[in-house]
Write a structure and sequence with these properties.
By secondary structure, the chain is mainly beta. It contains 2 helices and 22 strands. The chain starts with 14 loop residues before the first strand and ends with a strand.
Length: 298
């Protein structure tokens, strides 16, 4: 058994990470710069620094790093042409502290690139089949929409449906797969023009309220606010009312509602992107959240 050596018991040394440019674009180069400082009282041996962008990384052997020393490394790489959503940058250092033990330290940074389409932004599975209730969780407490109840209303995967003269395409997904986005300020690229940008969705745990904005191709922005009712029960303003939903104990025969909502656009102006209303920071039980299944310009 090795004797305890208190000089080897320390908080991990800090590693810093910067990314330039701070707001990169898909297909463009980024530079990751990391500095590791040995703030311990021992030499860090066999040190290896890994700089990574999501699943792509560049390891760099630093050798030994004496107490009080710092070392900086940079890595220039290119984001994928189709990069979208959250991109995570990491600096991760591994080192030996004695013959039979090692330690590590890391720093992370992330950015949120625009999604290229609404389905690309889907981050929640809200639909389950009646035979497999647990594959979806629309409200953070394992409730879900029924695929069979949706089908009875014409909302089958990839179906085209029209409400109030506005045509939507229902997500072309199987039960248990991501089929909606929890609206939290994500950016989605748009193209085209029209008189209204319309959404099909619903809220859980109360009314979903938040502010978003439309960005036009000329750089001008148009702010908007939404307030979407909770899904529970039959709502007279609903586009679709389903006869039941799933809960953790099985089928709940309380109806649930889906709604259409949107923002009037400046006719004839070309669209560039959309910032979804910031209703919540992801999905949490007991916290109001807005779920968007489809959107269209008309």
């Amino acid at each position: 058994m090795n004797a305890y050596r208190p000089e080897e018991d320390f908080l991990p040394p800090p590693v810093s990470l910067t990314v330039t440019p701070p707001t990169p674009e898909p297909g463009k180069a980024v530079t990751l710069t990391a500095t590791l400082t040995n703030t311990t009282r021992i030499t860090l041996r066999g040190t290896v620094l890994h700089l990574a962008v999501d699943d792509t990384e560049e390891p760099d052997s630093l050798g030994s790093l004496a107490p009080g020393r710092s070392v900086t490394r940079a890595w220039r790489t290119r984001l994928a042409d189709d990069a979208e959503g959250r991109i995570v940058f990491t600096a991760h250092a591994l080192f030996d502290v004695h013959r039979h033990g090692s330690d590590c330290t890391r720093a992370t940074s992330s950015i949120l690139l625009p999604y290229r389409s609404l389905p690309g932004a889907f981050d929640n599975a809200g639909i389950a089949s009646d035979a497999a209730l647990t594959v979806a969780n629309i409200d953070g407490s394992n409730s879900s929409l029924s695929a069979e109840a949706l089908a009875s209303a014409g909302l089958t995967p990839g179906a085209t449906v029209t409400y109030g003269g506005v045509t939507f395409t229902w997500p072309d997904t199987r039960p248990g797969n991501r089929d909606n986005v929890v609206s939290a300020g994500q950016s989605v690229l748009l193209s085209g023009s029209g008189s209204r940008l319309a959404f099909l969705g619903t809220s859980t745990w109360g009314e979903g309220r938040g502010d978003g904005k439309v960005v036009y191709a000329d750089g001008t922005e148009q702010a908007f606010s939404i307030a979407v009712p909770d899904w529970y029960g039959t709502n007279p303003s609903a586009a679709v009312v389903l006869p039941y939903r799933h809960i953790t104990t099985g089928r709940d025969d309380t109806p649930v509602s889906l709604f259409t909502f949107g923002v009037d656009l400046t006719p004839g102006k070309e669209l560039r992107s959309l910032v979804l209303p910031h209703v919540s920071d992801g999905l949490q039980s007991g916290v109001p959240a807005l779920h968007i299944f489809a959107m269209t310009i008309n």
